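Q: Structure tokens for this one, please.
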Amino acid sequence: MVAKYNQGAPKRTAGSKGHTEYKNMNTPLIAGLLSGFAGLLVFLVIHHIWIKPIWFILPVGLVIAAAGGLAAGWAYTELLPNLPGRPWTFLVWAGLVSLTLAPAVVFAQLRPPVFVGTGLNVTAAITISQAVVIFVRDLLLPAAVTGGLVGWLIGRTWRAALATALAGFVFALGPGHNVPFLGNTPATGKGILLLLVVILSASVVLVEVQAALAGGKQVANKFNRYLNEPNDRA
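A: Here is the predicted structure, written as tokens:
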């Protein structure tokens, strides 16, 4: 039934050595790239309206969004044949992305706040070296490990596990970068809500753009076959 509804999934063929090869890999990668840019734009707009303008991060943000989008596109390619069909695909995908960041949210809530004070009087309660340790230990590593486990459980291949582990790592660097430092602070709820909106927005773009591109290629391929078979129509 999954195969019936996920007709936009990249087709898999057995390679010469028995491993899985992919056709039309460019469609999910393009969709992933656009989803990364969409997530960044949503993040910056909401941050501008709800918190404060931070458009100065746009150049660096575009690089991270591109890397995250490409990683998401690859991971989506690996898992799509085993995901439920649209319109539920984007919700499931958003849930999987949220799951990769969930351990960091829990760890942040179990730890004393890393900032004290409010407003302009906020001061750090930890050193830079401690912040680096927290960022790697409580965010990057758990996101990569959780992503890899999700990929293995759903995709059932080491390639799927690697793709989702990489995606989890880049998700943590991008939209999840503040998670370890917002625990037990007044900004916790606002930060999590903003993160969920970004994830949902990017997921919708990824799923719908990939489906549109895949559908367009199927129509083009059928038309080309029609043009290349004049004798059969005679």
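A few notes: The longest helix spans residues 188-227. The longest strand covers residues 12-14.
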